Amino acid sequence: MAVQPTEKGMAVSNHVESREDAPQTMEGSKYEASEEQDISPAEGRKIIHKLDRRLVSATGVMFAISLMDRTNLGNANIAVGVRYADVTKSLAVLLFFVPYIIFQWPSAILAKKIGPRYFLPGTCLTWGIVMTCTGFIKSWKELAAMRILIGIFEAGLFPGALFLLQVWYTRYEVHKRYGTFYLISILGSSFSGVLAFAFQQMAGVNGWLGWRWIFIWEGVLTVLIAILGFFLIIDFPEKAQNSRKFLKPYELEYVIRRLNKDRGEVGVEPAFNLKEYLKSGLDIKIWAFGFVFTLNTLQSYSISFFLPLILNNKLGFSVGISQLMSTSPYIFTAFWIFGQAWFGDKFHLRGPIIIANSLASVVGLCLLARTKSAGSQYFGTFLVCGATNSSIATVMAWQANNIRGLWKRAFASAALITLGGTGGIIGALVFRSQDAPQYFPGMYACLTACALTILIVSALDLHFVRMNKKVDRGEATIEGLEGFKYTI
């Protein structure tokens, strides 16, 4: 567990050029000394809930439509009219993730430079337009072009949303917010199968096949959500006064004071320097978090891409029933995520939760691979979906808890999602049609991912415990801040 660092009360100008590698005491800003407006605990909770309504709900809905759009090939594939060869399907998925990975780094910088208020809805709008156009393709080459463009435009949403949420909340509030963000996205995207089933009922309208309507209407829905995002998304704390009808000045000062008391970041922002930005990559724990994230997105994307096919080919359900049944595991997952997020924030735990989830995922994969009952296999999909997606939210919070510095957060968010995207690529390759109905290579890949997750998380926690003991003895300073401790 980690404790809050002790406050030294060093006032700092709002435009300090700070060296992040130099040890600091708990920094304030121009906001820290402003105590004239008393805020009761009840009023404080209302202010934070105001943040939740604007930030968590808007980013969660946008990410939900993102997940729906990137994984709708599975639903379109089992719909009448799209029966691409297995290698073609996998290539279509790969063509999304390659640009998605490459554009994480410039997107993270643009999100910080432009500001989330315009950047996040703008990316959503552009890929929504492209998704709509996918419904009018006439060849494999056109599908490939659409998937590449969607990968480019979607690249900015996830790291930008992670960055935005972690700069507005304290370290032991962020897991619930990430959990709720991911809960909203999972619940929303879980209806992908239901919506696909409904949209494909329009087959024959205008002479078009059902799969075209899946892409067209999901694209239109994305554009509408992007327009809503322009009215809801707010900027970073130091610029939030520019966001329409948001916090009153004294409410904003209250939020910034508590953020500086937690980790001393707001108002201490060095000018962007590419060398210093890339220097963040020398911190090995950023890559360890990213690799754990990869191992869990591998499993999560595998299930989301191929759950309709598993239900259809492995368990023998009809196309329509398979699409409808693919929703239930994600509804179950939403409750799993939020329960663990509440537990993690209350007890300041991250790593042990991820290890427990990996063990649950092993049980689910064994049920899928080795039992013959359709009921037990279907229950296995609930365990895998719940465990892996909850671990994804937990890793996001774990990383946010254990780093400091705004540009380092931008780099770390991009690194996390970049490595997570490689999990999507692997997930697209390990579940193949020729392995139906057992899909053993995919199952074994996911089991290996669980084992590696347990090893890496255990090693990180041992290191964090050792470093926290050094801080207690006054022998070390973590993240350049006296009294700062790692969250295990």
Automatic annotation (TrEMBL):
SUPFAM superfamilies found in the cross-reference section: MFS general substrate transporter
Membrane topology listed for this record: Multi-pass membrane protein
Pfam families the record matches: MFS_1
PROSITE patterns: MFS
Domain of life: Eukaryota
Residue span, Major facilitator superfamily (MFS) profile domain: 38-470
Region named Disordered: 1-39
InterPro entries with a match to the protein in the record: MFS, MFS_dom, MFS_trans_sf
Keywords: Membrane, Transmembrane, Transmembrane helix, Transport
UniProt subcellular location: Membrane
UniProt KW Transport keyword: yes
Claim: Methyltransferase is one of the keywords in the record: no
PANTHER family, sorted: MAJOR FACILITATOR SUPERFAMILY (MFS) PROFILE DOMAIN-CONTAINING PROTEIN-RELATED (PTHR43791:SF47), PERMEASE-RELATED (PTHR43791)
Name under which the protein is recorded: Major facilitator superfamily (MFS) profile domain-containing protein
Gene source species: Lithohypha guttulata
